[in-house]
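Chapter review: from sequence to fold.
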Amino acid sequence: MSLLDREYYLEYVKYPDIYNYTNIPDIFKSDKQILLVAITYTAGYNYNPLKYASEELKNDEEIVLEAMKYGDNNALQYASDKIKNNEKIVLKSIKLNYTTLCFASDKLKNNKKFILKAVMINGLALEFASDKLQNDKEIVLKAVQNNGCALEFASDALQNDKEIVLKGVQNHVYAFEYASEELQKDSDIISEAIKNNGLEL
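The token string follows.
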């Protein structure tokens, strides 16, 4: 690799063809500066150069955070397994787009303290928690208090928990749809839904 070649590709990845990064020689896909430039200049496109970077750079916290910063909310999916198990980075990703929790490690998805933080950012993140934690009353309560529609992702048992369903319908009218059939007939829940959300039944 010559200095001239490197300078050429630093400029090459700036041009409007968003796939330019995929066409550079593999040796330059391990160059951190080239990747950072490519990420910056592809902002706003449905494309992330991180997908084609070296494994070393997919494991670089700065790179992944920059990829998120410049508009690709799904950058986490191209990161290394180590990054996907990094609580700080995954939480930042969830703040941008809660659905990116699906790319996190199974370990984090089954980590109660972590999932509590996630559902307090966006209750709908409950969708990607482990089955065990979708059946955890403390977590589900936090989730429906943040977004009542998170009740959709609670376990059947907790969709039949009166306290949780009440909190859900207090937050959002559509939570009523995810309550168990039994609780959809409960007078207290019907009354709360009407009072707080204008639900007509």
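Two observations follow directly from the output. The chain has two domains: 1-84, 105-201. The mean pLDDT is 91.
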